[in-house]
Amino acid sequence: MAVERVGRVLHVRVRDAAGEPAAQGQAALLGEAAVMDRVATVESHRRCGLGSFVLRTLADQAVAQGAGTGVLGATDPGRALYETPGWKMHSTLAECIYRP
Fold first, then answer.
1. Is the Cβ–Cβ distance between 78 and 38 less than 8 Å?
2. Which tens digit of pLDDT belongs to each residue from 25-77?
3. What's the CATH number of domain 2-83, 3.40.630.30, 3.10.450.50, 3.40.50.620, 3.40.50.150?
4. Which of 30, 36, 43, 93 could disulfide-link to 72, CB 3.0 to 4.6 Å?
């Protein structure tokens, strides 16, 4: 696993034993809030707890750097990843697309 901070964004990357990407995620640090984004696990590594590990690592790192609130948007299939460790749904999101 590697944790890197670039500006206000934390990146977590997990590689498998062969050095290939297995899971990743990022969090933007915005004052006391951490906005989780792009938490994903490569299909061949799913159902092994890597998504939860990435999310927990991001949250722990964000708290260590002053965040007190976590914010994220989840798809319906991804909600279990967030609800299992205690995240609570606050509201639904509207999907919007803008094409000039």
1. no
2. 999 999 999 999 999 999 999 999 999 999 999 999 999 999 999 999 888 87
3. 3.40.630.30
4. 36
